[in-house]
Specification:
This protein has 321 residues and is α/β, with parallel strands linked by helices. It has a single domain, classed as Phosphoenolpyruvate-binding domains (TIM Barrel, Alpha-Beta Barrel). Helix content is 47%, strand content 11%. The chain contains 13 helices and 8 strands. It has an 8-stranded parallel beta sheet, sandwiched between helices. The protein is globular.
Length: 321
C-alpha cells in the first residue's frame, strides 16, 4: 500500500483497521481457507476474517500438527486478504520455531497482508486446542517469543505493518488450570502482547471470569498495558474467543461474548466443515447415481459464482487491490 501522488495521507494499515473495528465493538471473524470463501464472507457482510491453522492444514490434506510451512501459510493469507480486502487475523501455531522465526513470521504475515497473528504456548508439534494430551512450553519460553513478536511489531511502525496486532494464545486451561491460564496471560501482556486468546474455556462464566481478570490486572501490569496502549494507539488488551464446533466450549452467541468483554470471536473451521459436509454428500450421490440430479438444487450455479467473483464473461476482469 503506497501513498498516491499528491496525497500525503497513508491509508490505514490492516492492523490499524482491525484495531478500529475492535475498539468499536466485538468483531465476528469467520474462517476463510481460500480466496473464494473470503469473497463469500465479505459479500455476507463480515468486516474481518480469520485464517485457521486447522482449516488450512485440512485443506492441504494433512492434520493440524504443524505440517504446513510458513511460506504455505503466507500464500493462503495473501490470497484471503487480497480477495476480501478485509483485515485478517491469522493463526501462526507456535511461531514456526524459536524467537528468530517468530520475528520472521510477524514480518512475513504483515507483508502478506495480515492485520494480526496469534502464537500459542504449546510444545511443538502442537495439537488442536480442544483435544486432550496437549503439553505446554515453560511460561518463560513463551514470554521470550511474545517479546520477540512485539519487537518486530514495533519495528514496523510507519509502514504497511503499522498497528499489527500480536495475540498470545494460552492452552493452560486444559493442561494446568484456569488460574494458570490467567497467570500466563498476564505475563504475555506484560511481555508486549496486544491480545489474549484463552483456548478451551469450558463455559460462558469462565469467559466472563477470564475477561474480568485480564481487563482488571494487578497494578504493575495495568501500568504496562497503559504504556503499550499509548505507544500503539489502542485501548487493549484485546480478548479473543474461539467458537469452534464439537470442542470443549459450548455454542455461545456473539452477543454473549461481547457482553462478557471480548473484542473478537473466531469461527475457525465452520466454513470448511460446512463445505466438506456438502462435498462428501455430493460425492456419495455422484458415485451412487452416476449423475448430479440428487444434489443439483444445492450447488452454487454459474451465475452465483460469477457474481461472487464480480466477473462478466467477455469483459476485462480486474484483480482486487
Amino acid at each position: 500500500m503506497h501513498d498516491q501522488p499528491g496525497n500525503r495521507t497513508r491509508k490505514p494499515s490492516p492492523g490499524q483497521r482491525l484495531r478500529t473495528l475492535m475498539d468499536a465493538g466485538c468483531v465476528a471473524m469467520p474462517g476463510a481457507f481460500n480466496g473464494l470463501v473470503a469473497r463469500a464472507a465479505r459479500k455476507a457482510g463480515f468486516d474481518s476474517l480469520y485464517v485457521s491453522g486447522a482449516a488450512v492444514s485440512a485443506s492441504f490434506g494433512v492434520p493440524d500438527v504443524g505440517m504446513v510451512s510458513l511460506t504455505e501459510f503466507t500464500g493462503v493469507i495473501e490470497q484471503v486478504a487480497r480477495a476480501s480486502q478485509l483485515p485478517v487475523l491469522a493463526d501462526a501455531d507456535t511461531g514456526f520455531g524459536e524467537s528468530e522465526m517468530v520475528v520472521r513470521t510477524v514480518r512475513e504475515y504483515a507483508r502478506a497482508g495480515a492485520a494480526a497473528l496469534h502464537i500459542e504456548d504449546q510444545v511443538f508439534p502442537k495439537r488442536c486446542g480442544h483435544l486432550d494430551g496437549k503439553r505446554l512450553v515453560p511460561a518463560e519460553h513463551m514470554i521470550e517469543k511474545v517479546r520477540a513478536a512485539a519487537k518486530a511489531r514495533d519495528a514496523m511502525a510507519g509502514t504497511d505493518g503499522d498497528g499489527f496486532v500480536i495475540c498470545a494464545r494460552t492452552d493452560a486451561r486444559g493442561v494446568e488450570s484456569f488460574d494458570s491460564a490467567v497467570h500466563r496471560a498476564r505475563a504475555y501482556i506484560e511481555a508486549g502482547a496486544d491480545m489474549i486468546f484463552p483456548e478451551g474455556l469450558a463455559n460462558l462464566e469462565e469467559f466472563r471470569q477470564f475477561a474480568t481478570a485480564i481487563k482488571a490486572p494487578p497494578a504493575h501490569i495495568a501500568q504496562r498495558t497503559a504504556q503499550s496502549a499509548k505507544r500503539t494507539a489502542h485501548r487493549g488488551p484485546y480478548l479473543l474467543a474461539n467458537m469452534t464446533e464439537f470442542g470443549k466450549t459450548p455454542i455461545i452467541p456473539l452477543k454473549d461474548f461481547a457482553a462478557a468483554g471480548y473484542d473478537c470471536v473466531i469461527w475457525p473451521v465452520t466454513t470448511l466443515r460446512a463445505a466438506m459436509g456438502e462435498v462428501t454428500r455430493a460425492l456419495e450421490h455422484l458415485k451412487r447415481d452416476g449423475d448430479v440430479s440428487a444434489f443439483i438444487d444445492r450447488v452454487q450455479d454459474r451465475k452465483a459464482l460469477y457474481d461472487l467473483l464480480k466477473y462478466t464473461p467477455g469483459e476485462e476482469w480486474v484483480f482486487p487491490g
